[in-house]
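pasting input
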Amino acid sequence: MALLEVEDLTVRFRTLRGEVYAVNGVDLSVDAGETVAVVGESGSGKSVTALAILGLLGPAASVPRGRVEFDGQPLLGRSEHQLRRLRGAAISMIFQDPMTCLNPMMPIGAQVAEVLEAHTKLRRADIRRRAIEVLDEVGIPDAARRADHYPHQFSGGMRQRAMIAIAIACTPRLLIADEPTTALDVTVQAQILDLLRRLIADHRMGLLLITHDLGVVADTCGVTNVMYGGRVVESASTRELFRRPTHPYTVALLRSIPTLQVDRKARLDSIEGQPPVLRAAPVGCTFAARCPRVLERCRTDTPRLEERGEQHLAACWNPVTQ
Amino acid sequence: MTGDPATGGLLEVDDLRVTFTLRGGPGHRRKVELTAVDGVSLSVRRRETLGLVGESGCGKSTLAHAIVRLVPFEGRIRLDGEDVTDLRGRHLVEYRRRVQLVFQDPYASLNPRLSVRRLIAEPLAFARRAAGADAGRDALEHRVVELLGLVGLSADAADRYPHEFSGGQRQRIGLARALSVEPGVILADEPVSALDVSIQAQIINLLVDLQDRLDLTLLFIAHDLAVVRHVSDRVGVMYLGRVVELGPADTLYTRPLHPYTVALLAAVPVPDPDVQATRRRIVLSGDAPSPLAVPAGCRFHPRCPIARTDPCSTADPPLVEAEPGRFVACHFPGELDAPDAVATTPDSDGPPLSAGSSS
């Protein structure tokens, strides 16, 4: 039994221009101590999937179908009160932009203490001590002094460390990180990825990492799920996925990334066309309109995730074989 | 080969310095000088692409703004041998026609209330009138359609508005606008960093094609080292307002000389799990210092894995030609091994190799 199991998750948004079919039947699982990536481009439904797991979707969203289980207990349909006891305690989330998530009017230490007050029975003096301990654990130098500083006195990398401190203060069993390093410079990104890796190993947390960056995926994740048009189109161990991608979207995506090791001014493979905006329930494969291997049935029948190798699933009627 | 990075190009920047005055302290009465670009010299050769990389706050965008004379600066700028530093009036207008800026965010740089036709025709009509050329409706319309075709958009895009387009298409519109006045030089400031990878590849390829067809000279500014690798003939690396390394793209990426370039390359995760697992890790501690508090000596020394007290913390190394065509500002160039030359320490969060202070 995995720590987190998501099955057939479906999310729609009501908008002024009708319903948007953001997530259309997503399956995922994360084990304790495992790092699982959800990778996809803007609008693929990856962030909405994360928010749906935590029950953080706004009032415009509805979840008509699906099952989300954490540690064997269903999460969907729980009351706000029950979810609040879980969030920040057993399941935590880290967002992209620490500046908009931290309270600018509150010292960093107090923001860590707030989580501890809500979820533990620690006494006041112990809370302060634990908050400093956590700030120290995430690599904030001189934590006892920095705990009294405000977010604007921190650099971007230090703010992201503070966000991580808040997220892990109660040693959650599952961490969901939505583009945790996208706003950071590469040298700082390397520091934060190292930190996440160490925390996962030390505490045997499960990590669901949502990102658009395949380099970050290759660096940190054991298992990778590729999303397109609100569906997981391919899922495999990261090694297997990069070595033997079978879904034409995964293949095209891997080819389109610029890399450091190229001949001078090499031409990039691009994917022609635009990702879909799903204003109706998708019929057939959502990638069919841009797919170089498209068949007649791709436009009418929705492919299901099927076994393509050991622990390797792909949803495609005409997969690439090597 | 001359030993001066500021010569031999179509566009030459000589010892350029941009200083902003900030106000701080109680009642905002204290004035603070922030030097965003601190003595940059470089030249962009005819029809080449010079890539400029660096992290946020290194001054790369400010440099581009100074080149098109949008911010006051010290130093000299030459275009095709002519000093353009003090141009005014219609001469400045003509200079700005020849050197066009393409912005990062096509959502913010296109007026949402203008149709694509007007967005492209406006700079075109202005430039034509300034040059005394035909700025009549038919001539403009003909050129707008031609430009849309050039950037891969259909002619019916002319009647639509920016919000009807996706990010990649908007960047095409931005390019059509810049190209409308037939510039010789394009300064592209993070032109693809707001785009998804599959779309990013389309725009990069378009840019390279256009450069070939129109004989453009390109200054390509980006924080993404891999993107810069794909478009550039030569690359400059900026750190805290300075160019710390400048050279041909091939050798700069395979055999970097400045320890900052080495660390920057090592920090980019390679999209290949096997390679990534065995790469040597050089994790710099801390963030780049604020340009308000530039370290003494070499400005990189507090984060540098190979810094020595003397001379690194005392003497500021100038940008010198270390090998033919390769410039570097470092007391010990080439002493820190390149990240992919050695494959050790797969251990992820081992002790960082660097000593420096953290902010």
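fyi Chain A touches chain B through 52 residues (CB under 8 Å).
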